[in-house]
Design brief:
six-stranded mixed β-sheet, Signal recognition particle receptor subunit beta, globular, Rossmann fold, Small_GTPase_ARF, alpha/beta, 8 helices
Amino acid sequence: MAGGLEPHLAALRQELGGPAVLSVLVALIAVAITFLLWRFVQGRKSSRKAVLLLGLCDAGKTLLFARLLSGRYRDTQTSITDSSAVYRLSQDKSTNVTLIDLPGHESLRLQFLERFKAAARAIVFVVDSVAFQREVKDVAEFLYQVLVDSTVLRNAPALLIACNKQDVTMAKSAKLIQQQLEKELNTLRVTRSAAPTSLDGSATGGPAQLGKKGKDFDFSQLPMKVEFVECSARGSKGEEGEADLEALEKWLVKVA
């Protein structure tokens, strides 16, 4: 193959004035291809402008959604449909993302995630830090379903675990929540022997591989960057107080 191409390369070198010019031409072509691939990847990323708010019922997603948009407290109830709005970043009013608050009810959450997952630039998974100890298995189960989804794995949106309700004395810390979730997710990974099913109900063709084989699971093994923050959508003074969402807002600026 190489011998067959040599006469053509020699002729091209002669026409272009020597091997140096040909090398430059090859380098320029390589740069052009790299640039086109970069633009393609960036184009796919920029087309995903949604930040999904996920979590179990009563984790505080809807109040957090309202606080981010208006800064004000509002009474909320369990959502049965999605809510969306454009969120303009405080540091740069020209930059915005679309916040989408998805229902947390067990019978609805995967259905709505299926609808919006392809548009997700980032995911905020809201955890009730007060009820976490008794809900840890349910939280891990939902999070596991999100993390093994083929679309989520392929797009690898930034993931934030927002440990909400930190204004309450009995709230668990972000560090403890991370440790417990890693432990529960590792258990789920080991016990899931059947082929996993994607959100649309189709089999993925093999056992879920969450993290690295032969090692205990931790979040650093995932294809997306995972961060934990402590926050409070209600605030330490209840309805009259300001929410503590500074860490969440900084993260949104970073991923926008």
